[in-house]
From TrEMBL:
The keyword Signal applies. This is DUF305 domain-containing protein. Transmembrane segments: none annotated. Pfam families: DUF305. PROSITE patterns: PROKAR_LIPOPROTEIN. The keyword Signal applies. Residues 58-199 form the DUF305 domain. Keywords: Signal. Residues 1-18 form the signal peptide.
Amino acid sequence: MKNVIKLTWLLVIAGFFAACTKDNNEIKIQNHDQDQMMSIMHQMMSKMDTMKMTKDPDNDFAMMMRMHHQGAIDMANLELKSGSDATMKQMAQSIMTSQQAEITQLTAFLASHPPHTNDPDFDTMQMDNMKKAGKQADLQIINGDIDHDFAILMIGHHQSAIENARLELLHGQEQRMKTMATNIIDAQMKEIDQFQDWLLARGNK
């Protein structure tokens, strides 16, 4: 009788590990340090961490978004180079076009607008948003599939841009930057929805 019970438990345990193995085969996970998209995200975060704040919300929003946009462009470049999904490549091209145009506007603004407002609370909240975004990115499940990782990481990337744009609407003084903030919110909320729909249709794989 004891041998029968022991055999039964061995079969249960074997079945459990077989199920786990099957699940792991269905949802692949790649180490973040080996993932190409995550490497671009980390490089962007490192650059933003070293940004010298001016305490002028409009200028600091412009400087931060210029770095943030460049990170999105670098990720989109990788998607166009190494991705295979037509929808993701189309989104990557759209992001590159729109955000490169905004980088040009941000650069022009910074060249013509010396800092003159002192609002240290904005800088603190902006950096807190970026740190939160970095932590969230490090919690994402990535699998080394360029299309999947582009979509999943761009959702978080866009969400952090939206949060900073909302801060600009509350603290900024310059209409040019407030208009850009509104445009960023509208465009990137739509893109988040598209990324989410694409991932859900694939079962997030």
